[in-house]
Design brief:
This protein is an alpha/beta fold. It has helices spanning about 25-30, 45-50, 70-80, 100-115, 150-155, 200-210, 230-240, 260-265; strands at about 15, 35-40, 55-60, 85, 120-125, 135, 165, 170, 195-200, 220, 255.
Amino acid sequence: MTDDATFLSSKSTIAVLGCGWLGLPLARTLVEAGYRVHGSTTTPGQLLTLRDAGIRPFLLSLAPNLSVIDADTLQALLHGAEVLVLNVPPSRAAGRPDAYPALLQPVAQAATRAGVQHVLLVSSTGVYADEPRIMREADAQAAATAKAPLLQAEALFQASQHTVVRLAGLIGPGRAPGRFLAGRAGVPHGEAPVNLIHLQDCINLLTSIIERKLWGYTFNASAATHPTRRTFYTAAATRLGLQPPTFLEESTGGKQIDSSLIRELTGYQFRHEDVVAALEYC
């Protein structure tokens, strides 16, 4: 067994709760930047992968009522951490979106007990109503019942010492969007804009927030280009040699995510602003 000295570095400790498709490469990036990193997974087979990446691994499954073992593991994950990156999608809430706040409540309580100074919550632009207008951070309203659980979960971490980042739809290696709608007929909302962000830009933005100590904010994060669903998903399927979807002849629009605030405060230049061109990197 590797000695704990393996995980020592000159920077502070960061806990990444949820080392999956986004969390694992983010944790690797933080290790490369010199941070001590604790990381959790729900898959026993991933423990060695985390350890080999220089991440101190923990096997942890969240639930509204944690078992004694998982509660102890959560405290161990958070022990000594200055920052917690909380990356648990709503789909983990046992198929019930309304259970999402209850799933994250024990984490909020444990972070307080462990003395974690900052929580960086990875949230979703799904908090916004699907209305044909530009959506900025202040436009999320709990009046839309389906969106309320997401906002309730965010509220657990919206304080001066924490930050929430609402990511647009995720694309990148292992998530080729050409498969999402390929071959389907009569797909609605062909003229609605897509709101997407590549994995590499997610990682770089989250790292920038930590490095620049941008706490106390709620941010949107999306590429600046918003082609129509018809344009994007036709191109995405064609690129994979799949049958493109066909869309209903309608002119219904949809929301367009504005991410100017995170760009302004981080100074980050997106690597994949053109989401159609980004298909090459998916």
